[in-house]
């Protein structure tokens, strides 16, 4: 279910909300569900405001019963400072909401029991989202930090594998642990597993989108300056294999060596990206790639 949101942004609500809402009404917990939904929405709007402040293009906000995900393409080429600020903008919303709850309690506007529930819900959402697992905010921080010096393709695959393992472990612990069945924790674990498995399956697609954005990023690189990453590869390495060594926020210079280790060609990264998208031979060896005329 998708609805229009602020500035035309799409806000998608997971179908699981409907049966959960019905169950909450039947059991008398609809106020708690509505409160959690509001907290998740404010959390995601914090991400949205920070992202738009940096000029990112936000495609959609997806709301789940226990969290949300902001979908954007800008993070693939954004500097670490921006990624960290956007990731932390969500959990930081819970700080002022906790302070507001204590003020309401002090003024007698809410009961101590509701205040305790509200504070606990905020703290739980903030701490859960800071776990170092994608697509949670802590996982986005780890992804941004690791991606600053690790090839993009390798980063998205390794983070997805780690997240899937953590999700599977959390689900197993919630269902078969000595403390008994924890349904909510099992749902969160299953969510993490599924999302990371999907990320792993779509890693090559995300990587191609990253490469496609490099053309636009080159304009910003020439205007603002960017670190250069130079590396040497064997001339038998293909174009497809070589671009998988590209790191975010760096402009790459590739030295092509022959069997004797002598430099035979030097290519800027845009030459390889052009060959990848325009040629029908992505597996062409670099030693056979002519210079750009």
UniProtKB/TrEMBL annotation:
CDD domains recorded: S2P-M50_SpoIVFB (cd06161)
Compartment annotation: Membrane
A single GO cellular-component term on record: membrane
Transmembrane segments: 20-42, 159-177
InterPro entries, per the entry: Peptidase_M50
Bilayer topology: Multi-pass membrane protein
One protein family per Pfam: Peptidase_M50
Cofactor: Zn(2+)
Domain Peptidase M50: 33-101, 116-150
GO MF term set: metal ion binding; metallopeptidase activity
PANTHER family listed in its UniProt record: MEMBRANE-ASSOCIATED ZINC METALLOPROTEASE M50B (PTHR39188), STAGE IV SPORULATION PROTEIN FB (PTHR39188:SF3)
Family of the protein in this entry: Belongs to the peptidase M50B family.
UniProt protein name: Peptidase M50 domain-containing protein
């Amino acid at each position: 279910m998708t609805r229009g949101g602020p500035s035309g942004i799409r806000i998608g609500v997971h179908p699981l909300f409907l049966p959960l809402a019905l169950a909450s009404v039947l059991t008398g917990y609809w106020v708690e569900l509505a409160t959690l939904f509001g907290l998740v929405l404010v959390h995601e709007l914090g991400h949205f405001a920070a992202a738009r402040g940096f000029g990112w293009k936000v495609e959609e906000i997806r709301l789940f019963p226990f969290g949300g995900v902001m979908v954007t393409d800008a993070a693939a080429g954004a500097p670490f400072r921006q990624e960290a600020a956007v990731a932390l903008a969500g959990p930081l919303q819970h700080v002022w909401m906790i302070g507001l709850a204590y003020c309401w309690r002090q003024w007698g506007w809410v009961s101590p029991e509701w205040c305790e529930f509200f504070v606990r819900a905020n703290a739980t959402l903030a701490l859960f989202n800071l776990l170092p697992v994608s697509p949670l905010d802590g996982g986005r921080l780890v992804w941004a930090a690791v991606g600053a010096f690790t090839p993009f393709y390798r980063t998205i695959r390794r983070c997805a594998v780690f997240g899937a393992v953590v999700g599977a472990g959390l689900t197993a612990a919630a269902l078969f642990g000595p403390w008994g069945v924890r349904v909510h924790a099992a749902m969160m674990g299953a969510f993490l597993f599924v999302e990371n498995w999907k990320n792993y399956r779509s890693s090559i697609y995300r990587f191609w989108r990253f490469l496609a954005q490099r053309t636009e990023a080159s304009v910003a690189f020439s205007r603002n300056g960017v670190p250069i990453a130079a590396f040497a590869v064997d001339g038998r390495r293909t174009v497809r294999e070589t671009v998988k060594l590209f790191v975010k926020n760096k402009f790459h210079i590739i030295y092509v060596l022959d069997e004797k280790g002598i430099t035979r060609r030097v290519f800027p990264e845009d030459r390889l990206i052009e060959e990848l998208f325009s040629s029908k031979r992505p597996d062409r060896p670099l030693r056979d790639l002519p210079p750009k005329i």
